[in-house]
Amino acid sequence: MNYFNYIKKAIPAYLASGVILALSLASMIIMHRYNNELNAALDAIKDISIKKYMVKKEIERTEAMIAHIRDDLDADMTRPNPERLMFRALDDIKSNLPGALITVSRFEEKEDTNNLPVEIEAGIKNYKMILDYVAYIESFRVPDIQITNLTVSEGQSGGIVLKITGVLAMPSADTQM
């Protein structure tokens, strides 16, 4: 019986100490998680500041390169450059006609246009490819591609070769302003 009275009096103390222990354990777990999240946030801030520094250096390097192109190479970026547009068109043709061989001659200036003679040679498999290639080349507006000769012949290896001869024509820079 003595034990019963002792247990009856001790249970509230044990329950109170258990609740206090559970609350302190829960608060320690919460504080540990908070500490981990805080460390992760600080690491992210450090990464952002490092990346900010790297981006800033890259911007400075790019600006220096642009200044070099503008000042040292005397590139005028305010006026349209017909040659640059023609070369960009040639790059587009080369990337969209795989396996094509593109040959160019010298720039010719006639009246108010700049012309660049072009010869495009490409291996083809069927008639549809001829139509697709010619339609693509004729789709250019600036610079305009004027086809002067179109030849379909048998190649040395027995395949069919499409040869397009023409002129890239672009108004000269003086007439564009």
The secondary-structure class comes to alpha+beta
Under CATH, the topology of the largest domain can be stated as Alpha-Beta Plaits
What level of helicity do the residues show? 55-70%
Q: Describe the sheet with the most strands.
A: 5 strands, antiparallel
Rg is 38 Å
CATH H-level superfamily of the largest domain: Ribosomal protein S6/Translation elongation factor EF1B
Question: What percentage of amino acids are in beta strands?
Answer: 15-25%
On the 0 to 100 scale, the average pLDDT is: 84
User: In the CATH hierarchy, what is the architecture of the largest domain at level 2?
Assistant: 2-Layer Sandwich
Shape: elongated
Number of domains: 2
H/E topology pattern: HHEEEHEEH
CATH class of the largest domain: Alpha Beta
Low-confidence stretches: none
Kindly report how far apart the N and C termini lie: 111 Å
What is the tally of beta strands? Answer: 5
Please work out how many helical segments DSSP would assign.
Answer: 4
Outline the structure in words.
The protein has 177 residues and is α+β, with helices and mostly antiparallel strands. The chain has helices at residues 2-72, 82-96, 127-138, 173-176; strands spanning 101-104, 108-110, 113-124, 144-154, 160-171. The protein starts with a helix and ends with a helix.
